[in-house]
Amino acid sequence: SLSKVDHAYNNLLTGKSVCLVGPSPSLEGSSFGEFIESHDLVIRLNKGFPLESGKEKDLGSRTDIHYHCLNTLPYCGGEIPYEELFNESVYICCPYPKFVNPFCIDIESFEENNRGRLKYHYIDTDVYLRVTSSLGTRINSGIGAILDILCHDIKKLHVTGFTFFKDGWRKSYKDHVKIFGKEEGERKEQEWLSGQFDGNHIQEPQKHFVREMFLNDKRLSIDEKMKEILEVK
Hints:
Blueprint: H1 7-13, E1 17-21, H2 33-37, E2 41-45, H3 56-59, E3 65-67, H4 82-87, E4 91-94, H5 103-114, E5 120-122, H6 125-135, H7 141-150, E6 156-160, H8 176-180, H9 182-194, H10 203-216, E7 220-222, H11 224-230
């Protein structure tokens, strides 16, 4: 393992089959919900929890772990749903490290607001820095989640609903028009979809990184859409 083990989190993951559900609209109409639920642990990202109402057939209904970037701005992770996380006994994790700017600010704010109520975990600093320095970019929350999960003693990890933003997001997950207004929102959406704008997260090196993880770690499986994007079988 690359990581200095967080024993409490590792105990939760040890020997488990895990499904990580991403924000892509490619899951709409998929009827993947039953397959997602068949895993020991279901993990969702940022605005993917609480689950969008009416999407259970495609996305499943259970959430065991929630990866949130802890930046609560509406165009980032959005508000942290403390009450729902607490009431449903969901383990919250951050795919960014505590001791690196700007993430330390978000994690400190979370710790203050959490007041010890929720169990939480964040990615190992050395692992994060080694990967991001080699890729030359900040990794997406979802890619950070994949990396972090694979640093623990899981049985297997299946990843679905990730397209590196080629088809944007489910509108119930992130709607640029609602966040920025019609004109600005549509412009931002087009920039993302056309690949003209990656923000802090350059996608190409991340694609290569995930492809290498898929080819070299037999615990990792990905859906057909992701295989197509990464050009693997």
